[in-house]
Amino acid sequence: MKMKKIRDLILVDIDEEKTLVIACDSSGSIGEKENDLLKVPAFITGKYIARVGLFEVISTNAEVITVIDNVCNEMYPTGEQIIKGIQEEMINAGLKDVALGGSTEENFPTFSTALGVTVIGIGRKETLKINNVQKDGLIYSIGIPKVGGEINIKGDEEIIEYNTLISLLKVDGVKEIVPVGSKGILYEAKELAKNNNKEFKLSVSEGIDIYKSAGPATAIIIAIDKVIEEEIKKIPNSFKIGELI
Description:
The protein is α+β, with helices and mostly antiparallel strands. 25% of the residues lie in helices and 31% in strands.
């Protein structure tokens, strides 16, 4: 069985046609417990940590088959609310029939909220958008990088959402999609170029911070063919970051 790590993904060959795509994320001290540093409902903790893994796997054009939660807290009330948040995020991603399983901590009391989420998908090798850039092109970012309390938990139109992500997967000229995490847009752009054996030439638009953490995947970068640039420009909160040469 052949396995490899690309960015934050683990890829496991199933057979000649299919690959298992695995992503995970974790959270600590974000919740409602007494020692949490960022006070938000446990529901929100579950929702946004699940979002990271879901974006990572969906961005590859793989089909999510299961989500696993490792809740490092008691089931009631914290775990229950975390799981409800994960379930809502799965519904937002169009995954209402995908299995969710996991575990909670019932042996010891906990005083801060902690969670790990793993997302597993299956993709066809010929259609996976991983290291898929064959010729020169452009890199655009979509969504505004936000982290922690900067995100409007009641609904934030500035961050990337699933409907935009899924529509981009269907565009022939979109060669690769990478969610942006804590290291920022510029870091992810350079990594994308390196993984595709390309040189990255920065030509960033004004109005976007390419160094800022995007927290729970509030922004993505996409590698595109130049012929679809005008189409991409029409997407709200899209910014040209540079060229792939």
